[in-house]
Amino acid sequence: MLENQNLVVILIIIANVLFSMKGFDNYYFFEMYKFQINKILSGEKIRMISSGFLHADWVHLGFNMYALYLFGDIVSKILGAPNFLIIYFGSLLAGSLYTLYYHKSEPYYSAIGASGAVSGIVYASILLFPDMQLLLFFAIPMPGYVFGVGYLLYSIYGMKRQLGNIGHAAHLGGTIGGFAITLLLVPELFLVNTIFVFLLAIPIILLLIFGNKLKSL
């Protein structure tokens, strides 16, 4: 029988699958709930949450849900189902807010996907277990904190260069949200994992200080 902590992760995955499937089959549904700057600024704030449950295709959905299953299980088991949900939806909203801020002058910029929420969950799990071993490209082992810093730096570079059809701003915002919310929920991490907390914070601090200059570089 599934524990409550596992069940909440499964329910979020099911919600993503069902909502995404509806979007696959219904163009108007997809257009109504995707993230789009001009629509959000005109009052359709629900898109900041609903867009996180839409995906472009099964591959996009599959990657996000696989990562959520792996890392969400860690966070929910350690912090409990309510805190998992706080981090998940807080990171999703943070990703949308940062995307809205960064692309505010691009009225037709649009985005979809749970990447912001999942990025926050991934960063939360790394904060809890900074020396966990992760596999880059399923082959190269590295400590979780190295992966976390590298992921952030790549996302910053990707956002500046607009690499691929990827919402790098949502990744960054979600990561910042997951980082901040986890530390608010578990402040003892400052004492237990002090060095790793500051290592993971460095690219976030640099982004917050210099992020508004990225577009002009």
UniProtKB/TrEMBL annotation:
<keyword id="KW-0812">Transmembrane</keyword>
<feature type="transmembrane region" description="Helical">
    <location>
        <begin position="191"/>
        <end position="211"/>
    </location>
</feature>
<feature type="transmembrane region" description="Helical">
    <location>
        <begin position="6"/>
        <end position="30"/>
    </location>
</feature>
<keyword id="KW-0378">Hydrolase</keyword>
<dbReference type="GO" id="GO:0016020">
    <property type="term" value="C:membrane"/>
</dbReference>
<keyword id="KW-1133">Transmembrane helix</keyword>
<feature type="transmembrane region" description="Helical">
    <location>
        <begin position="108"/>
        <end position="129"/>
    </location>
</feature>
<dbReference type="InterPro" id="IPR050925">
    <property type="entry name" value="Rhomboid_protease_S54"/>
</dbReference>
<dbReference type="GO" id="GO:0004252">
    <property type="term" value="F:serine-type endopeptidase activity"/>
</dbReference>
<protein>
    <submittedName>
        <fullName>Rhomboid family intramembrane serine protease</fullName>
    </submittedName>
</protein>
<feature type="domain" description="Peptidase S54 rhomboid">
    <location>
        <begin position="43"/>
        <end position="186"/>
    </location>
</feature>
<dbReference type="InterPro" id="IPR035952">
    <property type="entry name" value="Rhomboid-like_sf"/>
</dbReference>
<keyword id="KW-0645">Protease</keyword>
<feature type="transmembrane region" description="Helical">
    <location>
        <begin position="166"/>
        <end position="185"/>
    </location>
</feature>
<dbReference type="GO" id="GO:0006508">
    <property type="term" value="P:proteolysis"/>
</dbReference>
<dbReference type="InterPro" id="IPR022764">
    <property type="entry name" value="Peptidase_S54_rhomboid_dom"/>
</dbReference>
<keyword id="KW-0472">Membrane</keyword>
<comment type="similarity">
    <text>Belongs to the peptidase S54 family.</text>
</comment>
<dbReference type="Pfam" id="PF01694">
    <property type="entry name" value="Rhomboid"/>
</dbReference>
<feature type="transmembrane region" description="Helical">
    <location>
        <begin position="135"/>
        <end position="154"/>
    </location>
</feature>
<feature type="transmembrane region" description="Helical">
    <location>
        <begin position="84"/>
        <end position="101"/>
    </location>
</feature>
